[in-house]
Amino acid sequence: MNNDADATLRHADLDTTRGSRLKGPVGQPVVSISNLSKTYDSGFRALKDVDLEIRRGEIFALLGPNGAGKTTLIGIVCGIINATRGTVVVDGYDNVTQYRETRSRIGLAPQELTTDSFESVWGTASFSRGLFGLPKKPAHIEKVLKDLSLWDKRNNRIMTLSGGMKRRVLIAKALAHEPRILFLDEPTAGVDVELRHEMWNLVRALRATGVTIILTTHYIGEAEEMADRVGVINDGELILVEDKTALMRKLGSKQLTLQLQSRLDGIPDSLAAYDLELAADGHELIYTYDTTAEATGITRLLRDLKQTGIRFKDLRTKESSLEEIFVNLVRERR
Amino acid sequence: MNVYGVRAIYTFEMSRARRTLLQSIVSPVIATSLYFVVFGAAIGSRIAEVEGVSYGSFIVPGLIMLMLLTQSVSNASIGIYFPKFIGTVYELLSAPVSYFEIVLGYVGAAATKSLVLGVIVLATAGLFVPLHIAHPLWMVVFLVLTAITFSLLGFIIGIWADGFEKLNIVPLLIITPLTFLGGTFYSIDMLPPFWQKVTLFNPVLYLVSGFRWSFYGIADVGVGASLAMIIVFLTLCLGVVAWIFKTGYRLKA
């Protein structure tokens, strides 16, 4: 619960430093998706009655396997794809009937590296700002390009850039009109490790200025690192939306690994009641337990081990990662 | 009205033309010069005056129309087809611009480019033959209306096309033949009566005829009919564009 309280505090601090471009307090829904469905002309049902609320000022990670409907969901919110059914309300405005209001608040960095090869980095970012209805502001474009380590390349044609740079050009374009809500579809695909950390810092800095961020990713470590909340989508259905820490607490199992003093050939019958397995050729004993259960059973296990005469020289515990949680969730559904 | 958005699209399209200056300007000028050499000098010297105008001068309005139609269509169709092809259209669709503003940006830029070309072709023609413009104001009206109408047509083709082949097929198989058979290089009086009747179904005839009238005061069909035809065509294109955006045809899934 401490984490939640911290988060609320942090958001409250932010609210006072923020401009008044968005209505309503932090933590309230800024994007409300209701009953959203999409059936493509081919008959493929990409989204099935999705309900989702994105809170103001949060980083929301949307996870799911390929073809789960992540990009379709983002496409509908941003106006690129027509919904078959359902509504999307952004900051109090309907995204179809009041599209100017909603779209001017949203920035989108798409998954595909789609860029105008012959344009310069500076030119394409300035174009985006104009397209979104804002007058020129070179100082802002300069800041965005510097934040994304693109300043040295500002006069280069996009075709001369590497894949990771093109990815950042797309993010620069999305930020050119100072959006309050940012959609990042696979933002770090093809970006090297060092730059990935830089981009994470950039995303956090954006959030600190009050920008709401929705990102999709294949790197679960990224969601684990960045997100306040996590949504899992599979086969067009939103199967779970949870606070990240709560999710990891709830679904996470922990493992206790004991390094044994002498090798075991098998698990003794007296310990059959425990969820145990042998590893490292009998030199390690792994106990998997549920962190949410009333008793973890560790004390009892250690006592029983002693009675059985099994001695250990070291021990360590490990939490399951979001990746394992995610894989388990998706597998359960199949 | 998102004025900055329209300006961004318009400027982007115009700068695209600047990057391909050679292809955009030089090639039409060379093509026009070739037409003058072949039709004006080589063949034209054997053709007597057409309705009191020397053959070389007679073909100038037709040549300008030929350039205007083909360039408007190709400029506008590539302008919107390319973002679709490379995927950058996502930004256009996610931006707070109305359909009207998108059309204004793309069609405005394409029409501007072909108008500039029309003037260049006119100036080039002036180097070869004496020119006389009887109704300059009407000339501008025909020029502008035609550029807009065919840029709209190009825009429609660019949206409809899902490959480069389709992008080229309409200009190649429809626009060019209609232009050549629409009295660009001849007066329809020169045709046998049957083909005169057939030609009357060619919309381009009305454009060329009205445009030629603004130069020399001679026309195959009435000026009113020419104007009416352009306006019908313009309305038709506007209707199709409105339908495209209403349904999201080939733009939105």
CATH domain fold name of the largest domain in chain A = Rossmann fold
Distance between the termini of chain A: 33 Å
User: What is the helix fraction of residues of chain A, given as a range?
Assistant: 25-40%
Instruction: Assign an overall shape of chain B.
Output: globular
Overview of this structure, please?
The complex is a heterodimer of chains A (334) and B (253). Chain A is α/β, with parallel strands linked by helices. Chain A has 2 domains: 2-249, P-loop containing nucleotide triphosphate hydrolases (Rossmann fold, 3-Layer(aba) Sandwich), CATH 3.40.50; 252-321, 2-Layer Sandwich (Alpha-Beta Plaits). Chain A has helices at residues 2-17, 70-78, 99-105, 121-131, 138-147, 163-175, 193-208, 220-226, 244-251, 298-308, 322-333, and strands at 29-39, 45-55, 59-63, 85-90, 93-94, 106-109, 181-185, 212-216, 229-234, 237-243, 253-260, 276-279, 284-290, 312-319. In chain A, a hairpin with a 2-residue loop joins β4 (85-90) and β5 (93-94). Chain B has one domain. Chain B contains 10 helices and no strands. In chain B, α3 (55-86) packs across α9 (203-216). Chain B is globular. The interface between A and B is medium-sized, with 33 and 27 residues.
Tags for this entry?
heterodimer; A: 334 residues; alpha/beta; Rossmann fold; Alpha-Beta Plaits; 2 domains; six-stranded mixed β-sheet; four-stranded antiparallel β-sheet; 11 helices; 14 strands; elongated; disordered N terminus; B: 253 residues; mainly alpha; 10 helices; 77% helix
Summarize the structure in short:
With 334 residues, chain A is an alpha/beta fold. In chain A, 36% of the residues lie in helices and 27% in strands. In chain A, a hairpin with a 2-residue loop joins strand 4 and strand 5.
